[in-house]
């Protein structure tokens, strides 16, 4: 699979959509029953009405191959969420911006946002913001100090990668394409898997000695919910599989495995008895806007420390944690969480989000949200004997790299790290993603929404042939 479009000293320009579509989502069906799917249409999920008989694909007595691709409109980020002032845009601005210019930029953004309300709201908002300008709280000061340190690295590195993307035609400076599709997220998505994990706690306890730690997906697509929640599920074949859970269809890529459970039910993952050379995690960090929207539950710091990384990690395991731009969370990972797991911090990388025309999705110096997120890379520190025994397999990790990509508009659908990490790990290592919301070939994935972005409604049928 080739999701890396360009590789420079600064980092990589990735194509997230291409990675998903090269995962091999081809379903081979020898069933005698026709399916109600027509090419180039969104795929009906379980419970939807069938198309008229004339639209069905007659496949009796034949094996039909159906290829699915992720819906392209979820990556149609054609323009920035907030347009930066000309001198702050990637093509016009300089690599250095003073604190005064940064605050002026924030004021301009806030003024543009304020014009949406009525005059009274605008005046009240302006008064509040003037007060905020006088005194920054400690969190804001810490964030500004951090941003000042990394700003030039992000600006220069992103500029070079975007220039390469424009030269090759992957990015388009003036994107005139208009998406006629709406990014309508199906109603049932995101509100069933986590609840199912809660319900599972009421199921009768299963005796581990009588229960297999792993189950393989065969041609039977209907898997009892209790089986799915009580052991790791594997697709060992070279073909994608489709499973049905609570009446909903999910695509499982080849050579992948997963456990659907919450943090209180991790024992099946430990029973799987695998040791991982790479562990990537995207924890549900506490966030004010997320709490207001009630999008997902968050974990407290003491809960994260309970994750049994030492029991899951192989010697010299590479641990990577996605962190929001709150300095409180970054300090927690580096100063508390990693030491608690005997992980030594090695580097901080950044994921930079751009539009399809190569602009930052948000002004780089916005005082509210930044167009980048942080990845903290560390390595498990084992005994001296283990370290020496595995030292030949350890490749050095660069202090700083950029991962630049057009982000998915679906919340918290992070870009894949498989090809990026390939330069720094040996082939055929065991990889684990914690708090995952999608599956990847060659990886084990765990989370209470681990199948979320595998739902068939996120895909389109590209071709349906016998």
From TrEMBL:
<dbReference type="GO" id="GO:0005634">
    <property type="term" value="C:nucleus"/>
</dbReference>
<dbReference type="InterPro" id="IPR007757">
    <property type="entry name" value="MT-A70-like"/>
</dbReference>
<dbReference type="GO" id="GO:0009007">
    <property type="term" value="F:site-specific DNA-methyltransferase (adenine-specific) activity"/>
</dbReference>
<protein>
    <submittedName>
        <fullName>Methyltransferase 4, N6-adenosine</fullName>
    </submittedName>
</protein>
<dbReference type="InterPro" id="IPR002052">
    <property type="entry name" value="DNA_methylase_N6_adenine_CS"/>
</dbReference>
<dbReference type="Pfam" id="PF05063">
    <property type="entry name" value="MT-A70"/>
</dbReference>
<dbReference type="GO" id="GO:0005829">
    <property type="term" value="C:cytosol"/>
</dbReference>
<dbReference type="GO" id="GO:0003676">
    <property type="term" value="F:nucleic acid binding"/>
</dbReference>
<dbReference type="GO" id="GO:0032259">
    <property type="term" value="P:methylation"/>
</dbReference>
<dbReference type="GO" id="GO:0008173">
    <property type="term" value="F:RNA methyltransferase activity"/>
</dbReference>
<comment type="similarity">
    <text>Belongs to the MT-A70-like family.</text>
</comment>
